[in-house]
UniProtKB/TrEMBL annotation:
Keywords: Chaperone, Hydrolase, Nucleotide-binding
Pfam families assigned to the protein according to its UniProt record, in alphabetical order: cobW, CobW_C
Region annotation Disordered: where it falls in the sequence: 236-275
Coiled-coil portions: none
Similarity comment: Belongs to the SIMIBI class G3E GTPase family. ZNG1 subfamily.
Protein name: Cobalamin biosynthesis protein CobW
Ligase recorded as keyword: no
Organism of origin: Haloferax profundi
């Protein structure tokens, strides 16, 4: 092949035991005209996957498989991985690279390696493929079996499985819904709904024992601008935001084709609000809505509600304005049974005026409020049959006046610091 041509790389991710190794073996034994190099990463000292792949496929004999036996592909091993892929590119004895990320790796950082490091000049990302264990996914998000919501890696480290499953789906170009034999048609329909809500444009193929079409898997599937469900819900709401000032019903509850607004009626103590709750389109049988208030939440109340969301919520994410820590832009993230808040930098509205002006010039899309600037509580909820009214009411109970004199409670203020609101038993 032309040595200057970029080599396509497919990053394969998925939770432990989802069927990545099985799929790789299928890939290698059905490679056809493809000359595939596989880079297998496994946490822990024994590189089981690489051995299995090497054992089971003649195609790997002669160095087709490069083993990385220590550490996680996305963190400690970043340097080694970079060196390994650059060396592989120099050898150029293949026309497609497949990297299997460890079961607890985030696929995003692995793919970024091929965009930002020395490897970028030699590779093009062809696709981020996430293998999903349909049974496990159904249990975690559709049936809700709390026993199975912690991911344990071979080095004994644990973290909430739901976070990983969600992140792996949210960054995928293709989801291989494996172990189709272990779920019913109804369960598959539910799982597909959830996956499509998390990642609206993703391709989904159902497989048993990783039997995916090899040409399709290796084709150019990557779309770096593909929408993530929660962000799409927010943007959808922003597009329609103009509607909130055109409430012609006069009762504070305007309706448009796929939007439902709540403005506080006079006298409820929140007249200052510039608030709206709106639905994203109910395209996938799963609903999402955005809760927005131009006011802070009481820290204890926010923790109580956001750390204890109903099981119907699969994914929630957004910005939090916390009373008592009014300068800090917090982000909130929930995936199934785990939820946490991260302290970000300051709100733009708290910066010196010239910095605000510069920022706003560079980000004309920012939703700026005359009085509060970018300060807001803005949360997207995605799930099935969420009792929206109850959730909105529960949150509204903890809305305070901007500037309310309360302590910030357990909320950390150093940028990057996390506060765990909920986690499955045994996590972290
Ligand atoms: N019933 C069923 N079992 C499957 C299927 N695909 C894989 N398995 C089994 O699931 C187990 C895990 O599969 P692997 O391919 O090792 O999964 P993996 O994602 O590579 O696992 P890790 O390397 O631990 O992350 C194995 O026992 C497979 O035989 C499937 O479609 N249906």
């Amino acid at each position: 092949m032309n040595p200057r041509e970029a080599i396509p790389v497919t990053v394969l991710g998925g939770s432990l035991g989802a069927g990545k190794t099985t799929l790789l073996n299928h890939l290698l034994t059905n490679a056809g005209d493809h000359d595939i190099a596989v880079l297998v990463n496994d946490m822990g000292s024994v590189n089981v996957d690489a051995e299995l792949v090497a054992e089971e496929s003649e195609l790997t004999v002669g160095g087709g498989v490069t083993e990385l036996s220590n550490g996680c592909i996305c963190c400690e091993l970043q340097d080694d991985l970079e060196t390994a892929v650059v060396r592989l590119a120099q050898e150029r004895s293949f026309d497609h690279l497949v990297v299997e990320a460890s079961g607890v790796s985030r696929p995003g950082p692995v793919a970024r390696l091929f965009v930002t490091s020395r490897a970028a000049a030699r590779y093009d990302v062809a696709g981020l493929v996430t293998v999903v264990d349909a049974r496990l996914f159904a249990d975690t998000f559709v049936g809700g079996d709390p026993e199975r919501t912690v991911a344990e890696d071979s080095d004994g480290s644990v973290e909430p499985l739901s976070d990983l499953l969600v992140e792996q789906v949210e960054s995928a170009d293709l989801v291989v819904l494996n172990k189709r034999d272990l779920v019913s048609d109804d369960e598959v329909a539910d799982v597909r709904d959830v996956i499509s809500a998390l990642r609206p444009s993703v391709d989904i193929v159902e497989t048993t024992h990783g039997g995916v079409d090899v040409d399709f898997l290796l084709s150019d599937l990557h779309d770096p601008d593909a929408p993530v469900g929660w962000r799409a819900a927010l943007e959808h709401e922003d597009e329609d935001a103009g509607a909130e000032t055109h409430d012609e019903s006069g009762d504070g509850h305007g309706h448009s084709s796929h939007e439902h607004e709540h403005s506080h009626a006079e006298g409820d103590g929140h007249e200052h609000d510039h608030s709206v709750v709106s639905h994203a389109e109910e395209t996938y049988g799963i609903t999402s809505f955005v809760y927005r208030r131009r006011a802070p939440l009481d820290p204890e109340g926010a923790s109580a509600v956001l750390g204890n969301l109903p099981d119907s919520v699969v994914r929630a994410k957004g910005s939090l304005w916390v009373a008592g820590a009014d300068d800090v832009h917090y982000t909130y993230s929930q995936a199934g049974p785990s939820a946490y808040v991260t302290a970000g930098g300051p709100w733009i509205a708290t910066l010196p005026e010239f910095e605000q002006d510069t920022y706003r010039r560079n980000h004309p899309e920012i939703d700026w409020h005359d009085e509060y600037g970018d300060k807001r509580t803005e949360l997207v909820f995605i799930g099935h049959d969420i009792d929206e009214a109850a959730l909105v009411e529960a949150l509204d109970e903890h809305v305070l006046e901007p500037g309310a004199d309360v302590a910030n409670g357990t909320y950390p203020v150093e940028p990057g610091a996390e506060l765990t609101l909920a986690e499955p038993e045994g996590a972290r």
